[in-house]
Design goal:
InterPro entries: aa-tRNA-synth_II/BPL/LPL (IPR045864), HisRS-like_core (IPR041715), HisRS/HisZ (IPR004516). By secondary structure, the chain is α+β, with helices and mostly antiparallel strands. It has a domain at 157-232. Helix content is 44%, strand content 17%. It has helices spanning 4-20, 34-41, 67-77, 117-132, 144-152, 158-166, 171-181, 189-196, 213-227, 234-244, 250-263, 268-283, 330-336, 351-356; strands at residues 24-25, 31-33, 51-54, 58-62, 82-91, 103-112, 138-143, 247-249, 292-294, 308-313, 324-328, 344-349. It has a 9-stranded mixed beta sheet with strand order 1-5-6-12-11-10-7-9-8, sandwiched between helices. It has a 3-stranded antiparallel beta sheet with strand order 2-4-3. β3 and β4 form a beta hairpin. The model has no long low-confidence stretch (mean pLDDT 87).
């Protein structure tokens, strides 16, 4: 077992690095209101978090991360621009992998700034890159905003776009929807038979479950309307696939995405943001010709990110989770801001893994 004192010392060292970059130290409570997190992530969050009940405060969760409470704090009374740092334990269920820790330390850096989002992305990434450079980690980067822009530009209904956007972070479900909306897979016979009925509920049995008859009828109506929509074209599906297949060094990825944007103009603004971000990184001394970019990166474990995403990995220790992760989460500030929003980007480091890899001292 790793020495907890060594982990805390490493956390203090990393936090000092972030403070030297202008970050204000902040604290958050270990118990967080479950309602906020469930509203953000849905009931699936229960399977990944430790939930308890309080007679006065209702359901509470042991803190699964720091970003949500720090965003809430900033949106309530933070000045602009602002950056924060923090450290402490977070708690995650690991039922699929009992060998992974369910309680571990995080140290983070969060930046809220309206002025130049791409420069802010570069600043956060390069601060963490430089802090971890002695470990020789592989840095992976991506941009969820590219796929979101591509979906937004599809020639299909808003309902289909919303469904696809909702499942961007669930690649298998996203692919199943794309196959269905493009007509690549047939409608199941049972669904087709149901939708063909003039009175779909006529032969229904007794109502069981939480959904009302009105909700069921509304869902059937939505499916009936969707069945009349023309399929997404093969060309658009191919362009989506081409975006998801981009996996190059950042300079080459940018050129490939510029080529795709010729045929899918909806992604051009996102490609331009990527170009400005890489320029800002290069301006900070980073060699972008050696920086990996994967257009599909971050789609399985970064649910609140909606733009730039990154992670740092120990290639010689594939058994370890990422040593650091982060990205842009503008939409989260909008959800928690009660009418306000601000561009925001941040990252977290796991000091326990830094210690496991030999430390930075």
């Amino acid at each position: 077992m790793t020495d907890r004192a060594a982990i805390r010392a490493e956390a203090a060292r990393l936090r000092a690095v972030f403070e030297a970059e202008g970050a204000q130290p902040v604290e958050t409570t270990v118990l967080q209101p479950a309602e906020v997190l469930l509203d953000l992530y849905g009931e699936d969050m229960r399977a990944r978090a430790y939930v308890t009940s309080d007679a006065l405060r209702g359901e509470q969760m042991l803190r699964p991360d720091f970003t949500v409470p720090v965003v809430q704090m900033h949106m309530a009374h933070g000045a602009e621009p602002a950056c924060y740092t923090y450290s402490g334990e977070v708690f995650r269920r690991q039922e699929d992998d009992p060998d992974r820790a369910n309680e571990y330390m995080q140290v983070g850096f969060e930046l809220f700034d309206r002025a130049a989002p791409e420069a802010a992305d570069a600043r956060v990434f390069c601060i963490i890159f430089n802090a971890l450079e002695p470990l020789g980690l592989r840095a992976a980067t991506g941009d969820i905003g590219l796929l979101m822009a591509a979906v937004g530009g599809l020639r299909t209904t808003e309902a289909r776009k919303k469904a696809l956007l909702r499942h961007i972070w669930r690649p298998r479900r996203f692919r199943a929807l794309m196959d269905r909306y493009s007509g690549r897979v047939p409608v199941p016979e049972s669904r087709a038979a149901l939708l063909a009925k003039a009175e779909p509920m006529a032969e229904a049995g007794p109502m069981i479950g939480l959904r009302s008859e009105a909700e069921i009828l509304s869902r059937i109506k939505a499916l009936q309307e969707d069945a009349q929509v023309a399929p997404i074209s093969d060309d658009e599906v191919a362009l989506i696939d081409a975006i998801l297949a981009v996996r190059e060094t950042s300079d080459n990825a940018l050129e490939r995405l510029r080529d795709i944007a010729v045929d899918m103009g909806a992604i051009q603004p996102a490609v331009d943001r990527l170009a400005r971000r890489l320029e800002a990184m290069a301006g900070r001394g980073l060699d972008i010709t050696k920086l990996d970019f994967e257009a599909s990166y971050g789609r399985t474990n970064m649910e609140y990110y909606d733009g730039f995403v990154f992670g740092f990995y120990a290639e010689k220790r594939p058994d370890l989770p990422p040593v650091a992760t982060g990205g842009r989460y503008d939409a989260l500030t909008r959800q928690l801001g009660r009418g306000r929003e601000i561009p925001a980007v941040g990252g977290v480091v796991r000091p326990g893994l830094v210690v496991d890899l030999g430390g930075l001292s």
